[in-house]
Write a structure and sequence with these properties.
Elements (H helix, E strand, L loop, with lengths): L10 E7 L4 H8 L7 E8 L2 E6 L2 E5 L1 H4 L2 E5 L1
C-alpha cells in the first residue's frame, strides 16, 4: 500500500520510494529510505504528519502516494 492509505498510529516499514532525482535525495536525507521504520501521526485532507527517525515531517499527498509501505 502507499503511505496515503496507511493506518494512523501504526508502525510501518518503507518498501520502496518511487521517485528519482532531487526529490528522492531530499527524502532519503530525511530518512525515507527502504527498510526505514515510520509512523503516520495525523492525516488531514491527504496531507500527512509522519514520524521518521524520531522527527515529525509533513508530507503532501502527491509525495505520500509514491512511498510504498507495509505494516511492520
Amino acid at each position: 500500500m502507499n503511505l496515503l492509505m496507511a493506518p494512523v498510529n501504526t508502525p510501518l516499514k518503507i518498501i520502496k520510494v518511487k521517485m528519482e532525482g532531487s526529490q528522492e535525495r531530499q527524502l532519503s536525507s530525511m530518512g525515507f529510505v527502504a527498510e526505514s521504520e515510520i509512523m503516520v501521526i495525523t492525516e488531514n485532507s491527504g496531507n500527512l504528519i509522519v514520524n521518521v527517525k524520531d522527527c515529525r515531517v509533513a508530507i503532501g499527498k502527491e509525495i505520500a502516494q509514491k512511498i510504498v509501505v507495509r505494516v511492520k
